[in-house]
Amino acid sequence: MTDVTSGYQQPYEGEGKEQRRRVIEDALLAFRPEVERRFREWIGREVPSRNAALGNLAAATDVHRLLKHRLLIDAVRRSDEEDREALDGPIRDVLDSTLDQRLDPDTRRSLVDEAKLRLDEVAAAPGDPRLQAQHWEQWVLTTESVFRFSTHEATFQACNDEEGAFKVTPGGQLVQSRLIVCEFWSDWPPTSFAKFIDPLHWPECSSFWQAMRQLRLPTPTDGGYDCDLEETVKIFNETLIVPLEVGFRTRPDRSRVWTRFNIARGFYSSSVPVDVDTGTVSAESMPGGPAKTLVRATKYLHWSDPNRPDFTSLACDFGWSEHMVEMAYACREQVPHPETAPSAATVRLSPMTLPDSAQVRLKRIYPGAHYRATTATVQVPIPRAGGVGAPRIRDVELVQMVADVITALAGKPQQDIGITSSNPAPTSSKERRAR
After folding, report:
1. How far are the Cα atoms of 99, 114, 202, 247 from residue 108, in angstroms, in the given order?
2. What's the whole-model pTM score?
3. What does the radius of gyration of the chain's CA atoms come to, in whole angstroms?
């Protein structure tokens, strides 16, 4: 099954896996001539034109929307205004490919027009040409009514590889290592990400991970296992092989699932291209956050191969951070369609066609609400039962809230939903709170 909006498909394998990896790489290389020059010997193929690279990205139904948007924003920020005009067609094709394809063509065209306007604004925003956190935040904020981003998309934190720390190599040297951190929030519980976090499954979820071969049998532990694995990753035409000592764990209360990894010293040799590769990947319940679960990856790397350029410099931009989301969602056993799985922080009502007066009323009564005329959809935040960090209302309270929205937009008195009464009586919200 493939969902062209979310980008989910069955685990990557075979020629499809290779093709998907090349689409992602080409979308980056086409707009980074300096990277192409530096790694030309190891790329092993002709990099397509910018038009072709974006066209291939638009046609790829197995690339997550988050990754398509981030690749596209990075591309337009690295292009001048004249180049962006020349790329108008493929840019629109990429945007269209990330919309719900069940919408009629006229509606999709209108939404693409709106998204293209916002993309031009992000392209012209101040800051480094490289996609940065403020650019992604601007994109999410200004196009929410177009794309209705999921929690993990809206909260995705851009990869940061500009910091470092000293780490010890297998030979005992202290070296300055590149620190890579990326994270996002999810409405799913931590155990939903267990397959993604377990390194034995990474090749099933990712087009960059080629294999995780057991160097020794796993040793069972409380809530998980310890094992030495040989990791095989492919970037461009190069295969990078690193022995890793890993430990996979799940807390007894299932509030955290994590893997810690480090170079397996017993299997390390001078042929290994890195002498530091350590970190954690985790999913943990975090009360008070924007969603139920924080998914986070932290990784330290130091390149040691004198015969090849530093591939760790590509880790952020060529897949580690964006690919973490790809892996997490591709590894889920079941992924509901976005239309049937709205954010746990909002409720969507459709079809609802609002005249201008009702739209003004919506913004006045529910400041965080959104109305999309093209799809006749109202999206309203679900209030919390208490202060910051308290769970959002549910069950009868949620049903009552929906009823209040509908009656308020219709300009009618609020009514008790009458779950236990067949004759609901008009009441004010103040009276209901006093009960």
Report:
1. 7, 10, 35, 46
2. 0.73
3. 24
Distance of CA 225 to the CA centre of its chain: 28
Counting Cβ atoms within 10 Å, is residue 411 exposed (0-12), middle (13-18) or buried (19+)?
exposed
By the 8 A CB rule, do 78 and 31 touch? yes
Reply yes or no on whether the pLDDT at 3 is more than 70. no
Note if the bond before 129 is cis, omega within 30 degrees: no
Token pair for 51: 């038009």
Q: CA neighbours within 13 Å on the CB side: how many for 264?
A: 19
For the segment 337-363, the average pLDDT, to the nearest whole number, is 69
Going by pLDDT thresholds of 50, 70 and 90, the confidence category of residue 315 is: confident
What number of helices (H) and strands (E) belong to the chain? 15, 12
pLDDT over threshold 70, residue 319: no
CA 411 to CA 394: how far, in whole Å?
25
> How far is Cα 431 from Cα 406, in angstroms, rounded to an integer?
18
Which DSSP helix (H) or strand (E) runs through 212?
A: strand 209-214
Q: Spell out the domain ranges in the chain.
A: 1-149, 159-336, 345-433
Name the CATH superfamily housing domain 159-336.
START domain (3.30.530.20)
Mean pLDDT of 166-180: 94
